[in-house]
Fold:
Amino acid sequence: ETGVTQTPRHLVMGMTNKKSLKCEQHLGHNAMYWYKQSAKKPLELMFVYSLEERVENNSVPSRFSPECPNSSHLFLHLHTLQPEDSALYLCASSQLLGDTQYFGPGTRLTVL
Amino acid sequence: GQQLNQSPQSMFIQEGEDVSMNCTSSSIFNTWLWYKQDPGEGPVLLIALYKAGELTSNGRLTAQFGITRKDSFLNISASIPSDVGIYFCAGLQTGANNLFFGTGTRLTVIP
Structure:
């Protein structure tokens, strides 16, 4: 399997639920990213990891909690989300921080 | 963050026509990238440009890195229905951790 994969592809959750999004890259890259894409808005960078260390956190609410256990895997833990958090969540990876990024297919999240 | 101005915002064209879109910034970038995104999917890298003045092709797609390093354009020749989607430009700067994205150009191809 190649490229960047994300699971699940679709997720519907209530505001009191706890869920996690998973991203896996098979490219041997060292940097991974979480983005949020809402309708009619530009891509918003949420978190950046390089060699499993978080290097950027763009004022994201604490109800989003990232985890990077190794350079191939990235998680986004979700709890007590709001309806306005409904969006497409995209994971990306790059060889090194600041290099060309390759995206996964995204998780379409709906918060009820 | 940095803002990339992408135009046009949307285009409606007949199948077989050529398409041109561009991206400009007030800042210098070291790398320009063009992505295409289909509905409900992640952006797919089309072309990467690493040098000012560089002209690169990928099939019917051609992109150029502007000589001032503040702009880039993407051309699609002889459009086909599967070219439909949103095209994003993105730029990388030295020392930055992340890409800066344009707002996208939504392309509709009428058969």
